[in-house]
Amino acid sequence: MVFSSLVFLFEFLPIVFLVYYLANNKLKNFVLLLASLFFYAWGEPKYIFLMLASIAINYIFGLKVSSNNKKEKKLWLIFSIILNISILVIFKYSNFFIDNLNILFNSNLSIPTISLPLGISFFTFQTMSYVIDVYRKDGKVQRNIFDLALYVSLFPQLVAGPIVRYQTVDDQISNRKHSINKFASGVDRFIIGLGKKVIFSNQLGLIADGVFATQISNLSMLEAWLGIMCYTLQIYFDFSGYSDMAIGLGKMFGFDFLENFNYPYISQSISEFWRRWHISLGSWFRDYVYIPLGGNRVSPFKQYRNLFIVWSLTGIWHGANWTFMAWGLYYGILIGLEKAFLDKLLKKLPKVFRHIYLVLLVMIGWVFFRSENIVQASEFIQVLAGMGSNPLYNNAIITYINESGYIVLLSIIFATPVVPKIKLFLKSKNSKLVENNYIYTLHSTFLVSLMFVIVVVLINSTYNPFLYFRF
Question: Residues 175-232: pLDDT tens digits?
């Protein structure tokens, strides 16, 4: 079940809201827990037992690392990290390792194909953050296993994030506030996120999928650039849209999740981009890997080593494919170069050139992320660079532009903070409009109209993927 499905919007969510708000405060968490488990089981019922086992095991680990015995609790921490990572390795990387061993040693090893459980990377990182936060005393140990289960399984952020750190919601689990204004703010955020997903991401995805499904020899240079541009925009609207919906749903149930995106494509360096993109993942690796390794407080050699480790893990986290490893190392190298000398050179350039630098490098990075294998990625980049016999343009590029050019242009505009700036401008220059609630009326009318368009599109379309759904 995905947020942008009619079943979720008009069956699951209304029923959950009705039961949740009719229940007294002592039962609200229990209602939300049951709803979250049902939500997860809807997609993959057999893996609900894996998540429940992970919750139970990490509940015990949390109790163990909260003790005052330093040596004992450190051993339990190490054991918990090893076990959680082992679960991730078994279910996410086993087939990848076996396939590569067979290639490397020309062997014929085989294991049963292991399906990837929904959201395993997200809920595994959350259980690890819980145990680590309790160990560091950054969060209180959770002695109610049902409340811990709610933290791990909470359906708004379960299958595609943002990665909610335990220390940010430990108090909210047992004591959070509900209000009409907060609920309305959540509805606003949810509809905006849903619009990003359905109106922009899905339409852009049709173009990107069409381009990447085309034989490399049949691509034109401009078609390849259009394809990777559409994928660059698609993945932003897909993932930031999902994060908006998760944050909005959280508010509707009284939770305040941290932001996960901050208009990353307006960045002027790779380092800035990663401070704005998938913020919850970046901060997780920073706080639980980079800083414990020494961060910036070590020699230059060790600092670059730390970057190499973090970005290797970031690539691997995204999937069991060499393309993700290449993608992670690509960013590790670029950030290392910026730290070494490139950032100083970039600051001497006009902003427009820094922005072009960022966008071009990010688009090349997305080629690795989107491609099926390294060969396809390298061949696609060659087409982008005009290194081959591919024509400059063909009939396909003309068709794409005629049919969907307006979507691409609107996507570029709305990938920038143009809407917040317009709101601020109207509020600052039109106090009478604000006082008379004209702006709020206009905004409400816009949301209702947007929701109507979304429903019409969903009814008439079967293309509705979530790119981060299985990470």
Answer: 888 999 999 999 999 999 999 999 999 999 999 999 999 999 899 999 999 999 999 9
Q: Which two tokens stand for residue 177?
A: 């506030």
Beta-carbon count within 10 A of 175 CB: 9
Q: Give dist(CA 467, CA 471) in Å, integer.
A: 8
How many other C-beta atoms can be found within 10 angstroms of the C-beta atom of residue 323?
Answer: 21
Residue entry with tokens 């902003």: 351
Q: Any residues with CB less than 8 A from the CB of 346 and at least 6 apart, and which? A: 268, 269, 338, 354, 357
**Contacts of residue 271, Cβ cutoff 8 Å, sequence gap at least 6:** 335, 338, 339, 343
The residue type found at 192 is I
Answer for the pair 289, 309: CB distance below 8 angstroms, yes or no.
Answer: yes
Which pair of tokens denotes residue 307? 């970057």
Q: Kindly state the tokens that stand for 65.
A: 């690392």
Catalytic residues: 318
DSSP tag of 23 = S
Q: How far apart are CA 49 and CA 40, in angstroms?
A: 11
Q: Tell which residue, 227, 235, 221, 225, has the closest CA to residue 209.
A: 227
